[in-house]
Amino acid sequence: MFNTEILKYSHFAINKAAEYILNGEIIGLPTETVYGLAGRIDNIDSINKIFHIKGRPQDNPLIVHVSDIDMANKLIKKPMNGILEKLANKFWPGPLTIIMDKSNLINDVISCNLSTVAIRIPDSRSMINIIKKINIPLAAPSANISGKPSCTSAFHVFDDMNTKIPLILDDGNCEFGIESTIINLSEDNRICILRPGGITLEDLYSVTKNVYLSDFVLNKRLISKCISPGVKYKHYSPSGDVYLINGSNYSFTEFLMKNIDTSYKNCAIIFKNDFLNIENIDIFYNGDLNDYKFQSKNIFSILREIDKKSYDKIYIRAPKKIGIGLAVYNRIIRAADFKVVDLD
Ligand code: AMP
Ligand code: MG
Question: What are the counts of helices (DSSP H) followed by strands (DSSP E) for the chain?
């Protein structure tokens, strides 16, 4: 049990965080994607603690964070080259995670007995300064309790991790607000997106046309076959039933008018200019229909607020699957456990 402290980003806070991590503790810290729970990769106790305090399933491997490509190269079987190196040079530091064959510096607890490891250089002064200070890569999953919406502020981390960790570094709200894009090189040498995120399909496409979205991203039926074990678990979810509704403002309203059950506590997430004139439903707005960046930055804090207010039914008007909107759509379809209603 810890008396969990929140410290604003500073030189002093980085030193304190580095000291905790060197001593095998886990700390909460911001990245440009979401807040993470970081521990040193060379200490099995630290890694086990991460799984334990998150309640993370033992077969869901962790992403390893490094400060430069040289550090990444030590963690993989052969140094990065070809298209993966090109993508890393273009998008690192940033929200792109690359799966590669691991070296023996990655223990089986981190990679859950896979032969591969997921690596990225985050665009986060907190994370980078700690890694540089201790010269050890950090394993860091998202800082939420497993299955719950991710944390995009230090206060979210405090809500989930109070007393479980000694320190949370606070550097404001996360820039992207959803997790990194995860890619690997498929057997036919194409770039496969296993999880959409801050680096979009369109961003990758600007570097190589050999890129495609894994079928697992939007399709529940195939998920058990995905090589990324995390995708098979329910994720990002408040405790009520979430429904993702594909349709216009008009058809969404009509659908709710016909289907709402007022014996439940209901709410809806809609867009700024949507109009929903129905009694017995609370409304949350997630920016403009075309402002995907705003939506990604805010979706998890809305879902966490909804979780706190204990709604039974949560109806979400689907975002467009364009740019980072695709990643927002993916998080909502997962939060809904694939309960999707197609209107129009
Ligand atoms: P999170 O830590 O919550 O951002 O989740 C990390 C994601 O990365 C999970 O979906 C994992 O399944 C995925 N992941 C981590 N390592 C690997 C790997 N070696 N191969 C495939 N997916 C991985
Ligand atoms: Mg997560």
Answer: 11, 16
User: What separation in Å is there between the alpha carbon of 12 and the centre of ligand 1?
Assistant: 31
pTM of the model: 0.96
> Which ligand gives the minimal distance to the CA of 60?
1
The string of pLDDT tens digits covering residues 15-69 is 999 999 999 999 999 999 999 999 999 999 999 999 999 999 999 999 999 999 9
* Residue 29 one-letter amino acid: L
Measure the CA–CA gap between 60 and 219, rounded to whole angstroms.
19
Q: Which of 47, 50, 62 to mutate to test the pocket of ligand 1 (most atoms within 8 A of CB)?
A: 62
Can you say how many angstroms the Cα of residue 112 is from the centroid of all Cα atoms in its chain? 19
End-to-end, the C-alpha distance of the chain in Å comes to 52
Nearest residue by C-alpha to atom 11 in ligand 1: 230
DSSP for 259-316, written as a single string? H--TTS-EEEEE-TT-----TTEEEEE-S-TT-HHHHHHHHHHHHHHHHHTT-SEEEE
- C-alpha to C-alpha distances, 54 to 51, 125, 202, 303, nearest whole angstrom: 5, 24, 33, 18
C-alpha to C-alpha distance for 74 and 79, rounded to whole angstroms:
8
Distance CA 48, CA 245 (A): 39
Distance (angstroms) between ligand 2 centre and the Cα of 206 equals 27
pLDDT band at 168 (very low <50, low <70, confident <90, very high): very high
Residue 242's beta-bridge partner residues? 314
State the DSSP code for 222: G
Ligand number, closest to the Cα atom of 192: 1
Distance from the alpha carbon of residue 312 to the mean position of ligand 2, in angstroms:
23
Read off the tokens for 108.
Answer: 């089986």
d(CA 323, CA 211): 14
116 lines ligand 1 (CB under 6 A): yes
Pair 223, 217: CB distance under 8 Å: no
